Amino acid sequence: MPRRRQLETNVPWVQLSTTAADWKRADPKLLGTMLSQLHLIRAFEEKVLELAGEGLVHGPAHSSIGQEGGAVGSIVGMRSADGVSGSHRGHHQFLAKALTHVSGGEIDPRELVSGEVRTVLQRTLAEILGLAQGYCRGRGGSMHLQWFEAGALGTNAIVGGGAPFAAGNAFAQKRAGTSDVTVNYFGDGASQIGSILETMNLAAAWELPVGFFIENNLYGVSTHVSEITKDTRLSIRGQGFSVPGWRVDGMDPLAVHLAMEEAIEHMRAGNGPVVVEAEVYRFFHQNGPYPGSAFGYRSKDEEREWRERDPLTKVAREMIALGLITDAEVERVRADAQAAMNDVAAELIEADPDKPGRNRIRPELWPETDFVNVGVRGDASELDGLTVAETESHAGAWRDVKFVDAVAQTMERRMEQDERIIVLGEDVHRLSGGTNGATKGLAKRWPERVLGTPISENAFAGLGGGAALDGRLRPVVEFMYPDFMWVAADQVFNQIGKARHMFGGDSAMPLVLRTKVAMGSGYGSQHLMDPAGIFATSPGWRIVAPSSAADYVGLMNAALALEDPVLVIEHVDLYAKADRVPEGDLDYILPPGRAAVRRSGADVTVVSYLSMVDHSLEAIEQTGIDGELIDLRWLDRASIDWDTIGESVRKTNAVLIVEQGSEGTSYGGWLADEIQRRFFDYLDQPVQRVTGQEASPSISKVLERAAIARTEEVVAGLERVRAGFGGTN
């Protein structure tokens, strides 16, 4: 018989409950502050549901009524510099953090509503109503609440989507040498999400001061937690990653507070992440003013039992028993909170003159419609004052270099000059510069700034986003292959790409995402895509695609100076290319809006990028067609050089867009549409395109070549243009 030994995890996991002695020992000011915040948040949520019932809340109203104890108990002892991020049901978390910030962590229930408290209530309500005076200027609404000054990093509409950003904020806090912490709030449903588990693992491996606070309210919309996981004690998740856990009654705010005190002490001491699970209960349905029993998935008996454990009643009852407050004074707290919310709402709404007996939002409070696109990206003014150099006109000495060495040398120079830059990715710290040598020498010089990650693109991409949003770091994230972006699609597109605009337009996102196109290398369908078309049709991203080492230097330098997320696309065909860069320090930039004319011509405008620039030049020479070749360099709609393209189109009256990758995810599709709309009057034939086939490249060398475009396909495209002119040059 084999020998067996029971294994145990190496970190504690405890259930914490309060005793009568805990309530007696508690600071009366702490209890009064908790009671105050609970009533302010409850009155706030009731007003939101009332306004939603009047049709004045555009979109869902995910109330936290019943769950306030978890947020208040866990946040009331935090510093303003501590960060919190929440979920779509995050009003209570945001308000608890904002109220703690403006009050210094102390609110007297007998003097409930100061001017600053009232401002928090009004600006938060204004945001939920979509008004200009809201914290995110009306763009965030109910599900995207952010106020950096208070440490409210942003609530999040994607289930589990906020965890990687929270880890990024904690990463920045740790690197800055602070003892501050970050806590991410999510629910029972999110406890099964990959981003949560990936982030928990990464945070544990790197000992980040981030807390994973699970509000286990038993239901994901209408699905009970027992239907989605075998062990409904959700804090067990931490045990698999050596993350200590606390499980606590979330209807007891003091129990939550005591558990969180222990958890925060653990994090501030540099011991890494924690998990805290609070058992709470939302008194209403997923959104709106109706109980879950109205939809048949909960019983009225169950709801009644939980309502009898209301955290507001719990704190009031304990304070009354201790002689700290009277029944009448508790009623006064409730009345004061409701009166404050009535006053706040009255300043935002008015009687509708066209609908007697109905209210409307005051028209003058809406954002101006011309604000709609402001802040999708920044204005690039941060590049002002930097040295702009067009390498084709460089008159000085040159230095021979392989393209991939120019990649590494550019990063080395920037890391010398900017200590905020960190590099994240799989194997970037090993193999003499990652899998292709693009980070050669960097880890040896800065081992603490070149960080090899677990294979978890969702976690480390989002961590980079959170670190960038903090403002103290400038992350460079590497995806080994572009196709891996789909693993991290939420973080790349919903989080990083949208953060600046979604949170009001002022939140800088200085992140660079590097990746390489590897068509022709035999890696098959899941490694070889060109990501340009996907990113160009997704908001927020800037895109650069260099075709030469000298251009790479200027484009990467610009990317690392911008306050926007920038995708830097490289191509493996260029890595080994013998190339050159200007002699001297590699400090010049090639700013957005600068394409390069690689060849002048009169017959057709050929537009391309990356390695296809060289293939296009070869094809032009082979056909004898007098093509004008434009190397785009910047690909996103905000950065593309329409002046250079337009000048060429007005001269040639024909356009051929050349790219290598699959037709379905083509960059040229939207570009052709834009060119035809802008320059239709100058075109003598439709815009022509060269792309790969519909299929993604296969492993078979023959089928891979058939799936992608190279010189021969550009030749065929040029001949189509020639035929479109009736066969003449």
Structural overview:
The chain is an alpha/beta fold and 729 residues long. The chain folds into three domains: 13-364, Rossmann fold (3-Layer(aba) Sandwich), CATH 3.40.50.970; 381-582, Rossmann fold; 597-724, 3-Layer(aba) Sandwich (Rossmann fold), CATH 3.40.50. The protein is 37% helix and 14% strand. It has 24 helices and 24 strands. Strands 1-8-9-5-4-2-3 form a seven-stranded parallel sheet, sandwiched between helices. Strands 14-13-15-16-18-17 form a six-stranded parallel sheet, with helices on both faces. Strands 20-22-21-23-24 form a five-stranded mixed sheet, sandwiched between helices. Helix 18 links the parallel strand 17 and strand 18. Keywords: Oxidoreductase, Thiamine pyrophosphate, Tricarboxylic acid cycle. This is dihydrolipoyllysine-residue succinyltransferase. Its EC number is 2.3.1.61.
